[in-house]
Amino acid sequence: MCHLNAFLTLLAVVLTLITARAQPTKTLTGRVLDEGLEAVPKAFIYVRDTTVIGTADMEGYFKIDVPVNTHTLLFSTIGMEWSTVQLSGECSTLEVILLYGFTYDFMSVRRVNRKIFKRFKHLPRIHQQAYEKGLFKSHAPCALPIFTKWVPRSL
User: Fold this and answer.
1) pTM exceeds 0.70, yes or no
2) Which of 5, 68, 115, 142 is most buried (most C-beta within 10 Å)?
């Protein structure tokens, strides 16, 4: 009986330590659309550039748990530009718009970045259109998109 009490005490201490070390998380929900206001099915959601933490369903909706100290998320899928969004502390519903991906053959990096940035500047207007059509729930994005310069990938 004494060994059982010692074992249960030790087990309680270990479980307390494991729970204390676990990072607190928050749940984020939302939707991913493309710039044509169509749902983006199976979009991947990343944290820290490499870890997939979730995917959108066939209608572009998602529900993910992220560590509380997460400040940015990346969204991607085939045929679209990667989108980085900056989370705010009170943000729990994300509405993300992905830009179509293009092939930039025979263009300078500077020209490609200008073309992408020109489209990027229209994201607030596209978000407003999605809200007016009932596709998004908020009139302004809760998480701000971050423009990242395009870098050519070598083969």
Assistant:
1) yes
2) 142
